[in-house]
Amino acid sequence: METNPSPLSAKHESSFAYGTVKDRMPRILTKVIDVCHKQIQSSKECFGEDGRKDAIDVVGKLSQLRSEIMTDKPLFALDDQLKDKEAWNKRLQQYSNDSPASWFTAPWLYVECFMYRRIAGVLNSSTYLKTFDPFAEQKQQSLMQSMTAVENLATFLHSVKQSVKVNDTAMLKQFFVDFLQVSLWGNKCDLSISAGEENSQNVSEPHKNLEALKKFILIDYSNDVWNLILKQKKRKDQVRIDVVLDNAGFELFTDLVLCEFLLFFNLADVIIIHPKCIPWFVSDVNASDLNWMLSYLSSCSFEEVSQLSTKLQERFKDGSMLLMKNDFWTLPDPFCLMNESSSELYKYFSSSDLVLFKGDLNYRKLVGDLDWPHDTSFKMALRHFSPTSLCSLRTLKADVVVGLKPGQAKLLAKECKEWMVNGQYAVIESNIIC
Ligand code: F6P
Ligand code: MG
Q1: How far, in Å, CA of 44 to CA of 52, rounded?
Q2: Taking 80 as the threshold, does the pLDDT of residue 334 lie above it?
Q3: Alpha carbon distance 391, 184 (integer Å)
């Protein structure tokens, strides 16, 4: 029988989880409360006294949530109108055997996701703020603050499209690796790690920085991913790639640039992207963030940017790109449970040629957010989650990582105390099914 390591949890005071639950989560909630507080006036102007009371009620419930976290209250079963509540309650029961699980004692993955699910439940219970995204403005700001990098990256893609021949495999491989790495480093810019503080792209020419960053990629299976794509291209008429998105703003732009590169050079025929359905971990992409970004960039005066954005909009119209929504992404489940809790999604992935998982939270869910020895193989940590070939592009922002060489973690700790959590290091880990 397989015995698994224990889940990461805030009960260990020296853990990154502890700092997250104690400081980062209340700070994020304070910002959400402030943003909703501003809605009191605007709701009054739009909907009168009813609107004012509605927004006040939201602020009150969110303040209550913050206090529950800060005083480590027991987690209680959800009792709202959102349709995934039974799935949440079922998991919670499993953590509450002898005594009720609380914010600091339950698995960190559950607790951190639970906070965002509770925020969504509160907003959904209101009359006028049902679809209000308290993070929308921050997400938009983070893109606007990265526009120099956006322009340079769009120019780079444009020049690659102009100069590289579709049959020049050697060149294509080189640029595939470049765009994959740009998308990887785009993951540095999430707003959850910075507790909602500005965290935009601060490198103006991201593609020129790749060489210097190579030494921070601890595991790199991009070669295997490239070989898989070539092999599938030879074998099949239609190659499908799925991208499970992470953050809006600059990271989303880098993901779409990678998609456009793959489609333009016929390395993929269709790309399906998977966003979140509720406001999530501050900066995660919702469908409305994608739409906002594409229309914002389409009207930009920088030609390469507006052209690219218009091209992407066309791709969503002609079906070479699709957006697919699923509530599974905002459950607290590790991906090894996908087949149980969302079998139709698991089955859907089985017909994909490759699934790219972006970011830290997706990585935590891939490996179950367990306290694995760092030299555990990625395949073992996936615990039979294997619908098709998959690859994770992640900068390290949580104290879990697998697939390192024996002894490598010790050396890294000497090099940089914060190596697992400060986003400076990254991995490209894959499980390729031949
Ligand atoms: O709040 C911290 C955290 O859970 C970290 O794991 C990570 O830094 C962040 O949230 C989410 O990161 P990402 O956007 O890369 O999934
Ligand atoms: Mg994120």
Answers
A1: 4
A2: yes
A3: 11
Query: What residues pack around ion ligand 2 (CB closer than 5 A)?
Result: 190, 246-247, 281, 284
Q: Using CA of residue 251, residue 255, residue 256, residue 260, what is the dihedral sign? A: positive
397 CB under 6 A from ligand 1?
Answer: yes
Q: State the burial class of residue 296 (Cβ atoms within 10 Å of its Cβ: 0-12, 13-18, 19+).
A: middle
Tokens of 240: 């499908």
322: region left, alpha or beta (phi > 0 left; psi from -120 to 50 alpha) = beta
Alpha carbons within 13 angstroms on the beta-carbon side of residue 15 total 21
As a whole number of angstroms, the longest Cα–Cα distance in the chain is: 66
Average pLDDT of the chain is 95
Task: Give, in order, the Cα–Cα distances in Å from 239 to each of 236, 260, 263.
Answer: 6, 14, 10
Per the rule left: phi > 0, alpha: psi between -120 and 50, beta: everything else, 238 is beta
Dihedral sign (CA 394, 397, 398, 404): positive
Residue 253 has pLDDT above 90, yes or no: yes
Query: In terms of Cα–Cα distance, which of 365, 357, 366 is closest to 394?
Result: 357
**Nearest-angstrom CA–CA distance, 364 and 123:** 27
DSSP state for residue 404 in the 8-state scheme: P
Ligand 2 centroid – CA 395 distance (Å): 11
Measure the CA–CA gap between 303 and 300, rounded to whole angstroms.
Answer: 7
Q: How far is the CA of 27 from the centre of ligand 1 (A)?
A: 14
Q: Is the CB of 193 under 6 A from ligand 1?
A: yes
Q: How confident is the model at residue 205 (pLDDT cuts 50, 70, 90)?
A: confident
- Residue type for 118, please? R
pLDDT digits (tens, 9 = 90+) for 127-164: 999 999 999 999 999 999 999 999 999 999 999 999 99
Instruction: Taking each helix axis as running N to C, give the angle between helix 169-186 and helix 222-235, from 0 to 180 degrees, rounded to the nearest 10.
Output: 130
| Of residues 218, 346, 330, the one with CA closest to residue 285 | 330
In this prediction, residues 230-246 reach a mean pLDDT of 97
Structural tokens at position 52: 């004012």
Both structure tokens of 86: 């039974």
